[in-house]
Amino acid sequence: MRYGSVCSGVEAATLAWAPLGWKAEFFSEIEPFPAAVLAHHYPEVPNLGDMTKIIGENYIGKIDLLTGGTPCQSFSFAGLRKGLDDPRGNLCLKFAELAHHSRVRWILWENVPGVLSSNRGADFAGLLSLLCGWQVDVPADRKGVRKWKNAGIINPGPGGFGLAWRVLDAQYTRVSGFPRALPQRRRRVFVVGYRGDWRLAAAVLFDRQSLSWDPPPRREAQAGVARTLTASAGGASAKEQQYNFIDGTGKPLNPLGCTWWNGKQVADTLTCTSNGQRMPDNGRMQAVVVNSKCPPDIAAGGPMCCGFDSSRYGCSCNLCGTILTEAKNTIADRSSVRRLLPVECERLMGFPDDYTRIPWRKKPAEFCPDGPRYKACGNSQCVNVMRWIGQRIDYIDKWIKAR
Q: Which of 83, 67, 6 is CA-nearest to residue 192?
């Protein structure tokens, strides 16, 4: 299988599909750091840069599949949700155009679940319409409410793609190389298309194990599952509550289902409103304290974030207050709380250790900054999910050729 990749990022797809023997004909990435990662790992694959300048007709007969995860910021609940009015959102329309002009047999498109409700579902309907070749409207449920479900199929029009879409969660997607999936809650919409036949696209995304009477297993609230990584995983993202802290044992302090403090060594995600405290741009930042020597009202029943002045909570032990922008305060309790490291973010995405640790700006890899690595991981796809989809496309494609 030969494929072209747009909005490539650091290429989770190529990592996922390497065991299948697939070949990348081109990448398309404009961000400097991800482009440097691609050049470091795949120097033989050309990076065409801006996807809007790719001429699809030049690749007729040269690629069998087009894949891409166009920017999600215009559809994400963490953004302004301008949808197709945002130039980044419009890239999904360019994806559809490129798919038709290059005459590929298969397509694979990925985005955040927010795309299903963006502009009351009209944005997703517009993308599906362009891909399948006929006008698709937002479906109505039994109560007459128009909205998209988490999975479905679309018949192809003349010359169009038969489509199937489904929301997949990385923490439940088990596949060879990832028998336990990944310990991250990361839900994404995947659209698979095959030119002229929806049944083959559906055969890729749907199987008996995914039917409604066989739901994925539920985890307890205390299970060690990280929240979804974003491009700001290394810092503060108030809209998505994206502080990723772990304790001294490496366990996440922000597991799913925990509200704030459950009486154990677990704290919820820190946000801009937790405990009424403010963020760094207002001069203050939260400090997490894990210290069993605190009085009972602090250790068990009180807030885990001692803010402003720790003495106001009756805390007599050696604890600091909220960290100020002047960096005069420090976190107490032997630094037992820290953010996720870049290599840990790589593991949560299914990347090999130090995959994004590359020579950068004329400096060796050991001086590679953390910020671009966090962003590259947060903007990427999970390798296990891409491998699962790739394996199923590979199986169906071989079945088609053998008929």
A: 67
Taking only the tens place, the pLDDT of each residue in 190-237 is 999 999 999 999 999 998 776 665 566 665 554 566 667 766 665 544
How does DSSP assign 187-228, residue by residue? Answer: EEEEEEEEET-HHHHHHHH--GGGSTTSPPPPPPTTS--BPP
215 CB-near residues (< 8 Å, 6+ apart): none
**Close Cβ partners of 110 (under 8 Å, ≥ 6 residues apart):** 67, 68, 69, 188, 189, 190, 191, 381
The β-bridge partners of 154 are 163
User: Which positions are annotated as active-site residues?
Assistant: 72
> Is the torsion defined by CA of 233, 238, 240, 243 positive or negative?
positive
Separation CA 4–CA 88 (nearest Å)? 19
Cα separation of 83 and 64, whole Å? 29
**Residue 138 to residue 148: CA distance in whole angstroms:** 7
What is the Rg, in whole angstroms, of the alpha carbon atoms belonging to the chain?
A: 23
The backbone region for 66, taken as left when phi is positive above 0, alpha when psi lies in -120 to 50, beta otherwise, is beta
Q: How far is CA 223 from CA 6, 218, 252, 289, 374, in A?
A: 35, 10, 9, 21, 23
| CB-CB contact of 291 with 319 (8 Å) | yes
* pTM of the entire predicted model: 0.73
Half-sphere exposure of 239 (CA within 13 A, CB side): 10
